[in-house]
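Entries read chain and fold; for instance:
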Amino acid sequence: MEIFQDPETWVAIATVIFLVLAARPVLRALNKMLDDRSAKIRSELAEAERLRAEAEKLLADYQRRQRQALKDAEEILAHAKSEAERIRKESAATIEAALKRRERQAMEKIAQAESQAVAEVRNQAVNLAVQGAQKALASGLDQSRASSLIDQSVADLERRLH
């Protein structure tokens, strides 16, 4: 065992023992540092996952809002079209009623003018008949002659009316 008697061997053994004993706290510190870094990375990954989930939630919310806005816009457009159609129909009905009312008024005016013309013609006929009778009475004609003058006046009346 000459190897144990050599001082260099004991220095080497002491150095190895020292390194083993000194390496333990260094390795513990190194492990602790690596564990802390690993925990920090896990924390950052969890935060990133939380942010990703929040971003997905916001995206889904904005997409839902966009779909709702499009649906609302379509409803507004459909309502506006139906209102325009309703107003168009009401306007057409109002115009048609006004035209019918004016047509009825015109027909009433025409009927009134016709009845007034008929009344004037009747008045003229009566006046002519009265004049014929006055002539017959004034001339002192006999009955047959008076009848023929009246008949002639009536015939003239028909001719004058048409």
Observations:
- Residues 2-161 form one domain.
- The mean pLDDT is 86.
